[in-house]
Design a protein that fits this description.
By secondary structure, the chain is mostly helical. The protein has helices spanning 7-36, 53-75, 79-98, 104-122, 125-136, 138-148. Helix 1 (7-36) runs antiparallel to helix 2 (53-75), helix 1 packs across helix 5 and helix 3 runs antiparallel to helix 4 (104-122).
């Protein structure tokens, strides 16, 4: 793999993609649990207002599936996935602020993780795309190999 960028930035993008896959999977599982058995959710009425657990389950399920798609796209160095992931992670971060009263430790961990993922997605994407794109686009890899030899 030949590139002008630092391989460390590609590692950050791989981290972001992997974390989106993990977070998406967690959201999908929470959404399924909310849809199937809403009694398993630990909701405290004094700290969190949820209008409809079934509706929240669908939101979690759809958001999780979008995160899974964006994470897979990031691992393939797709620009659409980067933009989608930035929007999804930013929204996820804001939603975690709403959950601070009910789940303070989990919410703070998610906010910290979302911040690191946003950094990974916004810093030096050109170098990342060059490093990761060589495996996603064989024609571009062949062109880079010919131009450097």
């Amino acid at each position: 793999m030949v590139s002008k960028g630092s391989p460390a930035w590609a590692g950050w993008a791989l981290f972001a993609g992997t974390m989106l896959l993990v977070t998406g999977l967690i959201n999908v599982l929470e959404g399924i649990i909310a849809l199937v058995d809403d009694k398993r959710l630990a909701l405290t009425p004094n700290n969190l207002v949820v209008v409809d657990v079934t509706g929240w389950g669908w939101v979690l399920l759809i958001a999780g599936l979008l995160m899974l798609a964006a994470g897979a796209g990031l691992l393939a160095a797709q620009t659409w996935a980067r933009i989608t992931a930035i929007v999804l992670v930013a929204v996820h971060l804001v939603i975690q602020i709403a959950w601070l009263g009910a789940y303070p430790v989990w919410s703070l961990l998610m906010i910290a993780l979302d911040t690191v993922i946003l950094f990974a997605l916004t810093a030096r994407w050109g170098a990342v795309r060059a490093d990761l794109g060589s495996t996603a686009d064989p024609q571009a890899a062949a062109h880079r190999a010919n131009s450097t030899s």
